[in-house]
Amino acid sequence: MSVSIKSPRQIENMREAGRLLAIVHKELHKALKPGMSTWDIDRLGETIIRDFGCIPNFKNYNGYPASICVSVNDEVVHGIPSKEHIIQEGDIVSLDGGLIYNGMHSDAARTWGGRRSFPGSGPPDGSNEAKFF
């Protein structure tokens, strides 16, 4: 596999692809709550990606049927979203997504653990912050 030197414009497009994907993850985290299905998370992620004028780079890659990989608790990685898989209070949720912006790919995963990671839950002093090592 060879690596090609990128032009300043391509580098800027790579940077923008990463910035947009960070926003996707931030919006998904804000929306994440008990009672929603992993399919709901995927639909929202794809909508946000397409609203940016981007293409979800996971969808249909080697037959993968979704735009966002959603893994809950003991699912290792690349969980396939489902209408039947409902997020419960205390679940550890990993979201892996990517997008294509002007031909440049971005890919990132984030994990939020348990009740303390749902926005607005836990004590207001922040003493309930989830920690990962």
Automatic annotation (TrEMBL):
Residues 112-133 are annotated as: Disordered. One of its GO terms (cellular component) is cytosol. Residues 12-112 form the Peptidase M24 domain. It comes from the Bacteria. Keywords: Aminopeptidase, Hydrolase, Protease. GO terms for molecular function: metalloaminopeptidase activity. Residues 114-127 have a biased composition (Low complexity). PANTHER family: METHIONINE AMINOPEPTIDASE. This is Methionine aminopeptidase. It comes from Catenibacillus scindens. The lineage of its organism: Bacteria, Bacillati, Bacillota, Clostridia, Lachnospirales.
